[in-house]
Amino acid sequence: MNTENNNSKCKIWAIGGGKGGVGKSLVTANTSICLALMGYKVVTIDLDLGGANIHTCLGLPIPQKTLSDYITKKVDTIEELIVPTPIKNLSVISGAQDELAIANMKQAHKSKILSKLGRLDADFVLLDLGAGTTANTLDFFLTADKGILVMLPEPTSIENTYRFIKSVYHRKLTSLQEVYEIEYLVNEAMNSKMGKNATTPTALIEKISQMDPKVGSLIKTQMENLNFQIIINQVRSQSDIDIGFSIKSVTKRYFGIDMDYAGYLDYDPSVWQSVKKRKPLLMEFPNSKLVTNFEKIVTKLLS
Ligand SMILES: Nc1ncnc2c1ncn2[C@@H]1O[C@H](COP(=O)(O)OP(=O)(O)O)[C@@H](O)[C@H]1O
Ligand SMILES: [Mg+2]
Q1: pLDDT in tens, 164-195
Q2: Closest Cα to residue 270, out of 261, 280, 262?
Q3: Can you give the pLDDT at residue 9?
Q4: Residue 272 CA: which ligand 1 atom is closest?
Q5: CA of 68 to the centre of ligand 2 (A)
Q6: How far is the CA of 210 from the centre of ligand 1 (A)?
Protein backbone atom coordinates (compact mmCIF):
# COMPACT_ATOMS: atom_id res chain seq x y z
CA MET A 1 0.00 0.00 0.00
CA ASN A 2 1.26 3.41 -0.87
CA THR A 3 1.24 5.44 2.29
CA GLU A 4 4.61 7.05 2.72
CA ASN A 5 3.27 9.51 5.22
CA ASN A 6 -0.22 9.82 6.59
CA ASN A 7 0.28 13.49 7.37
CA SER A 8 1.26 14.43 3.85
CA LYS A 9 -1.30 16.17 1.75
CA CYS A 10 -3.24 13.90 -0.54
CA LYS A 11 -3.46 14.64 -4.23
CA ILE A 12 -6.69 16.12 -5.52
CA TRP A 13 -7.72 15.29 -9.08
CA ALA A 14 -10.74 17.14 -10.43
CA ILE A 15 -12.69 15.79 -13.38
CA GLY A 16 -14.74 18.29 -15.32
CA GLY A 17 -15.36 20.03 -18.59
CA GLY A 18 -17.99 20.07 -21.23
CA LYS A 19 -21.60 19.19 -20.95
CA GLY A 20 -23.35 16.30 -19.29
CA GLY A 21 -23.04 12.94 -20.94
CA VAL A 22 -19.39 13.15 -22.04
CA GLY A 23 -18.25 10.56 -19.50
CA LYS A 24 -17.03 12.55 -16.49
CA SER A 25 -18.63 10.20 -13.97
CA LEU A 26 -17.43 7.14 -15.87
CA VAL A 27 -13.89 8.54 -15.80
CA THR A 28 -14.10 9.53 -12.13
CA ALA A 29 -15.49 6.18 -10.99
CA ASN A 30 -13.14 4.00 -13.00
CA THR A 31 -10.01 6.07 -12.44
CA SER A 32 -10.79 5.83 -8.72
CA ILE A 33 -11.18 2.05 -8.98
CA CYS A 34 -7.96 1.76 -10.97
CA LEU A 35 -6.03 3.71 -8.32
CA ALA A 36 -7.65 1.70 -5.51
CA LEU A 37 -6.75 -1.59 -7.19
CA MET A 38 -3.16 -0.34 -7.46
CA GLY A 39 -3.17 -0.03 -3.68
CA TYR A 40 -3.74 3.70 -3.29
CA LYS A 41 -6.27 4.88 -0.76
CA VAL A 42 -8.92 6.84 -2.65
CA VAL A 43 -11.86 9.02 -1.66
CA THR A 44 -14.17 9.90 -4.53
CA ILE A 45 -16.43 12.92 -4.16
CA ASP A 46 -19.53 13.57 -6.18
CA LEU A 47 -19.85 17.27 -6.84
CA ASP A 48 -22.09 16.89 -9.87
CA LEU A 49 -24.95 18.97 -8.55
CA GLY A 50 -27.21 18.47 -11.51
CA GLY A 51 -26.89 14.71 -11.77
CA ALA A 52 -25.10 13.03 -8.92
CA ASN A 53 -24.52 9.47 -9.99
CA ILE A 54 -21.17 8.32 -8.69
CA HIS A 55 -22.92 6.06 -6.22
CA THR A 56 -24.78 4.43 -9.13
CA CYS A 57 -21.55 4.05 -11.12
CA LEU A 58 -20.07 2.29 -8.11
CA GLY A 59 -23.16 0.21 -7.34
CA LEU A 60 -23.92 1.90 -4.01
CA PRO A 61 -27.28 2.82 -2.46
CA ILE A 62 -28.41 6.46 -2.26
CA PRO A 63 -26.15 8.14 0.33
CA GLN A 64 -27.53 9.08 3.77
CA LYS A 65 -25.22 12.00 4.48
CA THR A 66 -23.81 14.41 1.95
CA LEU A 67 -21.42 17.33 1.77
CA SER A 68 -24.41 19.66 2.11
CA ASP A 69 -24.88 18.31 5.66
CA TYR A 70 -21.37 19.51 6.41
CA ILE A 71 -21.87 22.88 4.77
CA THR A 72 -25.11 23.42 6.68
CA LYS A 73 -23.35 22.19 9.86
CA LYS A 74 -25.54 19.12 10.38
CA VAL A 75 -22.35 17.11 10.71
CA ASP A 76 -19.15 18.37 12.29
CA THR A 77 -16.46 16.77 10.18
CA ILE A 78 -16.03 15.79 6.58
CA GLU A 79 -14.75 12.40 7.78
CA GLU A 80 -18.29 11.54 8.96
CA LEU A 81 -19.46 11.66 5.35
CA ILE A 82 -17.06 9.01 4.11
CA VAL A 83 -18.84 5.84 3.02
CA PRO A 84 -16.82 2.70 2.27
CA THR A 85 -17.42 0.80 -0.97
CA PRO A 86 -17.13 -2.94 -1.67
CA ILE A 87 -13.83 -2.12 -3.40
CA LYS A 88 -10.85 -2.21 -1.08
CA ASN A 89 -9.17 1.20 -0.58
CA LEU A 90 -12.07 3.07 -2.15
CA SER A 91 -14.63 5.19 -0.32
CA VAL A 92 -16.98 7.95 -1.42
CA ILE A 93 -18.49 11.20 -0.27
CA SER A 94 -21.67 12.40 -1.84
CA GLY A 95 -22.01 16.11 -2.32
CA ALA A 96 -25.10 16.57 -4.25
CA GLN A 97 -28.40 16.23 -2.48
CA ASP A 98 -28.88 19.94 -1.93
CA GLU A 99 -27.84 22.08 -4.84
CA LEU A 100 -28.43 25.35 -3.05
CA ALA A 101 -26.16 24.70 -0.09
CA ILE A 102 -23.18 24.22 -2.37
CA ALA A 103 -24.14 26.84 -4.93
CA ASN A 104 -24.35 29.51 -2.22
CA MET A 105 -21.13 28.51 -0.53
CA LYS A 106 -18.98 31.51 0.40
CA GLN A 107 -15.43 31.81 -0.90
CA ALA A 108 -13.88 31.39 2.55
CA HIS A 109 -15.99 28.31 3.21
CA LYS A 110 -14.99 26.82 -0.13
CA SER A 111 -11.29 27.34 0.60
CA LYS A 112 -11.77 25.70 3.98
CA ILE A 113 -13.46 22.67 2.45
CA LEU A 114 -10.76 22.38 -0.19
CA SER A 115 -8.00 22.43 2.38
CA LYS A 116 -9.89 19.84 4.47
CA LEU A 117 -10.23 17.60 1.43
CA GLY A 118 -6.51 17.82 0.91
CA ARG A 119 -5.99 16.52 4.43
CA LEU A 120 -8.26 13.49 4.29
CA ASP A 121 -6.59 10.22 5.19
CA ALA A 122 -6.11 9.17 1.57
CA ASP A 123 -3.55 9.16 -1.21
CA PHE A 124 -5.99 10.57 -3.75
CA VAL A 125 -9.21 12.56 -3.63
CA LEU A 126 -11.09 12.53 -6.91
CA LEU A 127 -13.77 15.12 -7.60
CA ASP A 128 -16.53 14.56 -10.13
CA LEU A 129 -17.32 18.18 -10.90
CA GLY A 130 -20.25 17.68 -13.16
CA ALA A 131 -21.12 19.89 -16.13
CA GLY A 132 -20.90 23.61 -16.51
CA THR A 133 -18.63 26.51 -15.67
CA THR A 134 -20.03 27.94 -12.45
CA ALA A 135 -17.58 29.78 -10.20
CA ASN A 136 -17.53 26.83 -7.78
CA THR A 137 -16.73 24.32 -10.49
CA LEU A 138 -13.93 26.51 -11.83
CA ASP A 139 -12.47 27.03 -8.35
CA PHE A 140 -12.48 23.32 -7.55
CA PHE A 141 -10.87 22.67 -10.92
CA LEU A 142 -8.21 25.35 -10.41
CA THR A 143 -7.33 24.32 -6.88
CA ALA A 144 -6.91 20.65 -7.73
CA ASP A 145 -3.44 19.21 -8.26
CA LYS A 146 -4.66 17.93 -11.61
CA GLY A 147 -7.57 19.23 -13.65
CA ILE A 148 -8.84 16.55 -16.00
CA LEU A 149 -11.08 17.48 -18.92
CA VAL A 150 -13.25 14.81 -20.48
CA MET A 151 -14.60 15.37 -23.97
CA LEU A 152 -16.08 13.60 -26.95
CA PRO A 153 -14.54 13.69 -30.43
CA GLU A 154 -17.39 15.87 -31.74
CA PRO A 155 -17.38 19.53 -32.83
CA THR A 156 -19.83 20.60 -30.11
CA SER A 157 -17.82 18.91 -27.40
CA ILE A 158 -14.59 20.43 -28.74
CA GLU A 159 -16.20 23.88 -28.61
CA ASN A 160 -17.39 23.25 -25.06
CA THR A 161 -13.91 22.17 -24.05
CA TYR A 162 -12.35 25.40 -25.34
CA ARG A 163 -15.11 27.35 -23.64
CA PHE A 164 -14.31 25.56 -20.38
CA ILE A 165 -10.55 26.20 -20.73
CA LYS A 166 -11.30 29.85 -21.48
CA SER A 167 -13.48 30.13 -18.36
CA VAL A 168 -10.82 28.52 -16.19
CA TYR A 169 -8.19 30.81 -17.69
CA HIS A 170 -10.31 33.85 -17.11
CA ARG A 171 -11.09 32.85 -13.53
CA LYS A 172 -7.41 32.34 -12.81
CA LEU A 173 -6.46 35.66 -14.38
CA THR A 174 -9.14 37.41 -12.33
CA SER A 175 -7.80 35.91 -9.10
CA LEU A 176 -4.24 36.99 -10.01
CA GLN A 177 -5.55 40.43 -10.85
CA GLU A 178 -6.69 40.75 -7.25
CA VAL A 179 -3.42 39.44 -5.80
CA TYR A 180 -1.11 41.61 -7.87
CA GLU A 181 -3.46 44.59 -8.11
CA ILE A 182 -3.03 44.68 -11.83
CA GLU A 183 -6.61 45.24 -12.89
CA TYR A 184 -5.60 48.49 -14.49
CA LEU A 185 -2.91 46.69 -16.53
CA VAL A 186 -5.33 44.03 -17.71
CA ASN A 187 -7.93 46.64 -18.56
CA GLU A 188 -5.39 48.78 -20.35
CA ALA A 189 -4.06 45.83 -22.29
CA MET A 190 -7.59 44.74 -23.18
CA ASN A 191 -8.63 48.22 -24.25
CA SER A 192 -5.53 49.35 -26.09
CA LYS A 193 -5.38 48.65 -29.79
CA MET A 194 -3.95 45.28 -30.40
CA GLY A 195 -2.24 44.31 -33.60
CA LYS A 196 -3.32 41.57 -35.91
CA ASN A 197 -3.68 38.21 -34.11
CA ALA A 198 -3.20 40.03 -30.84
CA THR A 199 -6.50 39.22 -29.22
CA THR A 200 -5.34 35.89 -27.82
CA PRO A 201 -4.69 35.45 -24.10
CA THR A 202 -0.98 34.91 -24.84
CA ALA A 203 -0.92 38.26 -26.63
CA LEU A 204 -2.65 39.86 -23.67
CA ILE A 205 0.07 38.64 -21.35
CA GLU A 206 2.75 39.87 -23.80
CA LYS A 207 1.08 43.25 -23.70
CA ILE A 208 1.06 43.27 -19.89
CA SER A 209 4.75 42.29 -19.95
CA GLN A 210 5.53 45.30 -22.14
CA MET A 211 3.81 47.60 -19.67
CA ASP A 212 5.25 45.95 -16.56
CA PRO A 213 7.86 43.23 -17.19
CA LYS A 214 7.97 42.03 -13.59
CA VAL A 215 4.23 41.53 -13.19
CA GLY A 216 4.05 40.18 -16.74
CA SER A 217 6.51 37.41 -16.02
CA LEU A 218 4.82 36.58 -12.69
CA ILE A 219 1.48 36.16 -14.41
CA LYS A 220 3.04 34.23 -17.25
CA THR A 221 4.58 31.74 -14.84
CA GLN A 222 1.31 31.33 -12.93
CA MET A 223 -0.67 30.75 -16.09
CA GLU A 224 1.92 28.31 -17.44
CA ASN A 225 1.68 26.37 -14.17
CA LEU A 226 -1.94 25.49 -14.85
CA ASN A 227 -2.04 21.74 -15.15
CA PHE A 228 -4.70 20.52 -17.54
CA GLN A 229 -5.13 16.97 -18.68
CA ILE A 230 -7.37 15.88 -21.49
CA ILE A 231 -9.19 12.60 -22.04
CA ILE A 232 -11.08 11.89 -25.26
CA ASN A 233 -13.96 9.53 -24.60
CA GLN A 234 -15.96 7.32 -26.98
CA VAL A 235 -13.24 7.10 -29.58
CA ARG A 236 -14.05 5.16 -32.75
CA SER A 237 -11.12 5.90 -35.09
CA GLN A 238 -7.54 7.13 -35.27
CA SER A 239 -8.77 10.57 -36.29
CA ASP A 240 -10.84 10.70 -33.08
CA ILE A 241 -7.68 9.88 -31.11
CA ASP A 242 -5.72 12.58 -32.95
CA ILE A 243 -8.15 15.28 -31.82
CA GLY A 244 -6.41 15.16 -28.43
CA PHE A 245 -3.12 16.21 -30.03
CA SER A 246 -4.65 19.10 -31.94
CA ILE A 247 -6.42 20.39 -28.83
CA LYS A 248 -3.11 20.24 -27.02
CA SER A 249 -1.34 22.32 -29.66
CA VAL A 250 -4.14 24.88 -30.03
CA THR A 251 -4.27 25.33 -26.25
CA LYS A 252 -0.53 25.94 -26.18
CA ARG A 253 -0.64 28.44 -29.03
CA TYR A 254 -3.73 30.31 -27.94
CA PHE A 255 -3.56 30.19 -24.14
CA GLY A 256 0.12 29.47 -23.60
CA ILE A 257 -0.90 26.49 -21.48
CA ASP A 258 0.83 23.12 -21.70
CA MET A 259 -1.93 20.59 -21.63
CA ASP A 260 -1.18 16.90 -21.27
CA TYR A 261 -3.03 14.40 -23.38
CA ALA A 262 -3.73 11.77 -20.73
CA GLY A 263 -5.26 9.39 -23.25
CA TYR A 264 -8.46 8.15 -24.82
CA LEU A 265 -11.27 5.71 -24.09
CA ASP A 266 -12.72 3.54 -26.82
CA TYR A 267 -16.41 3.53 -27.48
CA ASP A 268 -17.61 0.33 -25.84
CA PRO A 269 -21.21 -0.88 -25.53
CA SER A 270 -20.36 -2.63 -22.26
CA VAL A 271 -20.31 0.83 -20.63
CA TRP A 272 -24.01 1.07 -21.20
CA GLN A 273 -24.52 -2.47 -19.91
CA SER A 274 -22.54 -1.76 -16.76
CA VAL A 275 -24.55 1.40 -16.15
CA LYS A 276 -27.77 -0.56 -16.63
CA LYS A 277 -26.56 -3.21 -14.19
CA ARG A 278 -25.43 -0.46 -11.77
CA LYS A 279 -22.04 -2.10 -11.52
CA PRO A 280 -18.63 -0.51 -11.99
CA LEU A 281 -17.33 -1.19 -15.48
CA LEU A 282 -13.81 -2.14 -14.42
CA MET A 283 -15.16 -4.77 -12.02
CA GLU A 284 -18.01 -6.09 -14.16
CA PHE A 285 -16.25 -6.22 -17.53
CA PRO A 286 -12.58 -6.94 -16.83
CA ASN A 287 -12.05 -7.89 -20.48
CA SER A 288 -13.38 -4.63 -21.88
CA LYS A 289 -10.96 -2.58 -23.97
CA LEU A 290 -11.66 0.22 -21.54
CA VAL A 291 -9.74 -1.60 -18.82
CA THR A 292 -6.53 -1.24 -20.85
CA ASN A 293 -7.50 2.33 -21.74
CA PHE A 294 -7.91 3.23 -18.07
CA GLU A 295 -4.67 1.54 -17.05
CA LYS A 296 -2.78 3.57 -19.65
CA ILE A 297 -4.47 6.79 -18.58
CA VAL A 298 -3.83 6.26 -14.89
CA THR A 299 -0.18 5.35 -15.53
CA LYS A 300 0.15 8.58 -17.53
CA LEU A 301 -1.56 10.63 -14.84
CA LEU A 302 0.70 9.17 -12.17
CA SER A 303 3.91 9.82 -14.12
N1 LIG B 1 -16.63 4.96 -23.71
C2 LIG B 1 -17.95 4.84 -23.76
N3 LIG B 1 -18.52 3.90 -24.57
C4 LIG B 1 -19.86 3.78 -24.63
N5 LIG B 1 -20.74 4.54 -23.93
C6 LIG B 1 -20.23 5.49 -23.12
C7 LIG B 1 -18.83 5.68 -22.97
N8 LIG B 1 -18.64 6.67 -22.08
C9 LIG B 1 -19.85 7.09 -21.69
N10 LIG B 1 -20.84 6.37 -22.31
C11 LIG B 1 -22.28 6.55 -22.14
O12 LIG B 1 -22.54 7.90 -21.82
C13 LIG B 1 -23.32 7.98 -20.64
C14 LIG B 1 -22.93 9.21 -19.87
O15 LIG B 1 -21.71 9.02 -19.18
P16 LIG B 1 -21.43 9.77 -17.80
O17 LIG B 1 -20.14 9.29 -17.30
O18 LIG B 1 -22.61 9.63 -16.91
O19 LIG B 1 -21.32 11.28 -18.31
P20 LIG B 1 -21.26 12.62 -17.47
O21 LIG B 1 -20.87 12.29 -16.07
O22 LIG B 1 -20.23 13.46 -18.18
O23 LIG B 1 -22.61 13.24 -17.55
C24 LIG B 1 -23.06 6.67 -19.90
O25 LIG B 1 -24.15 6.28 -19.13
C26 LIG B 1 -22.84 5.70 -21.02
O27 LIG B 1 -24.08 5.15 -21.43
MG1 LIG C 1 -21.89 12.76 -14.26
Answers
A1: 998 998 888 888 877 777 777 776 666 655 44
A2: 280
A3: 83
A4: 27
A5: 18
A6: 46
